[in-house]
Amino acid sequence: EAPTKKVAVTGAAGAIGYAMLMRIASGQMFGPHVPVELQLLETEQGLKPLRGVAMEIKDGAFPLVRGIKQTADPNTGFGDADVAVLVGARPRGPGMERADLMSANAAIFAVQGKAINDAAKRDIRVLVVGNPANTNALVAAANAPDIDPAQFMAMTRLDQNRAMGQVAIKTGTPVRDVERVVIWGNHSSTQYPDLSNALVNGKPALDVINDTKWVREEFIPRVQKRGAEIIGARGASSATSAASAAIDHMHDLFVGSGDAWQSLAIRSDGSYGIDKDIWYSVPCRCPGDGVYERVLDIPPPDEYSAAMMDATRKELLEERDAVKHLLPA
Ligand code: NAX
């Protein structure tokens, strides 16, 4: 039998947690032969609903589940973890400014980064979903000095999936024939969903679509603001699609997705001319076993793309400034 993966999930009783845990339990994150131990982390108030969630997982009778831990203590929650999905975050309250939200959340991720540093396996892979996801990943990594910051990622896979879905609809193609769609930058409305390298049935997507106005005035803003569109329709933010994207991200990272391109928000190493040390989404290949490799063999961006990539880069620099007080010197 494959070794058991210990998976820490924060915000486990929330909407995304609820939609994700059954899928981890059923083997969709690491494959159908990898047992999992769930280490569920919540706030003190969250522990009661979490008990109900844990009961439901038990009631699923999943053969791969080897244990379910429930805790409000980060060191226990991340203890010996192989993988962590950081979903729990503070929602924006009435009258709260973006900067206040940024600070409140960054404080949570500083604590969790320290706990990961103290308690998790050295080769842990961490996926940040809670917003502002890119900057929360930066804060968590900065507070985990003994773990390679490359092991901390923020999720832009939902944005990628949304973009692929829109291209599939526009071109009347099954989504599986849409490839190499890239999300650059921040998981926010400044992100740049880029079709410059995308393929539809193996042909350049921009040629197949042949409609620059649609790309710039409909596709890009729609993907950038899809979260708000879902809230408008559902009265609640994306949950099941976000959970599905987190499963996709981790599945591809651990099981591998061959030559396919996946967008991951990772620490910039200066590639593509992006400032070092911000968490910026870029295209990667995922060979498996927790490894990703940036796709570097692509033509330089044209003027439009360069401006789009720059706008989201600037926002990430501003976010980093807003949480400076939580970054150890
Ligand atoms: P919910 O409010 O339903 O759930 C959040 C849960 O986190 C709650 O149960 C809460 O008790 C818990 N929590 C809060 N602080 C915690 C802490 N310090 N430790 C452990 N648990 C804690 O929100 P949900 O809809 O699940 O969304 C969670 C986060 O995902 C939000 O920040 C949201 O903005 C973000 N999203 C990120 C997306 C992405 O693509 N990266 C898309 C979907 C979503 O908007």
TrEMBL record:
Catalytic site positions: H187 (proton acceptor)
SUPFAM superfamilies the UniProt entry points to: LDH C-terminal domain-like (SSF56327), NAD(P)-binding Rossmann-fold domains (SSF51735)
Residues that coordinate or bind NAD(+): G11, A12, A13, G14, A15, I16, G17, N105, V129, G130, N131
PROSITE patterns for the chain: MDH
EC number(s) reported in the record: 1.1.1.37
GO molecular function: L-malate dehydrogenase (NAD+) activity
Residue ranges occupied by any Lactate/malate dehydrogenase C-terminal domain in the UniProt entry: 156-325
GO annotation terms (biological process): malate metabolic process; tricarboxylic acid cycle
Name assigned to this protein: Malate dehydrogenase
Gene: malate dehydrogenase
Main EC class the enzyme belongs to: oxidoreductase
Keywords of the record: NAD, Oxidoreductase, Tricarboxylic acid cycle
NCBIfam families (alphabetical): MalateDH-SF1 (TIGR01759), PRK05442.1 (NF003916)
Source species of the chain: Mazzaella japonica
Protein family per UniProt: Belongs to the LDH/MDH superfamily. MDH type 2 family.
InterPro entries to which the protein is assigned, alphabetical: L-lactate/malate_DH (IPR001557), Lactate/malate_DH_C (IPR022383), Lactate/malate_DH_N (IPR001236), Lactate_DH/Glyco_Ohase_4_C (IPR015955), Malate_DH_AS (IPR001252), Malate_DH_type2 (IPR010945), NAD(P)-bd_dom_sf (IPR036291)
UniProt catalytic activity: (S)-malate + NAD(+) = oxaloacetate + NADH + H(+)
One Pfam match: Ldh_1_N
Residues where substrate binds: R92, R98, N131, R162
Domain of life: Eukaryota
Domain Lactate/malate dehydrogenase N-terminal positions: 6-145
Key word Nucleotidyltransferase present: no
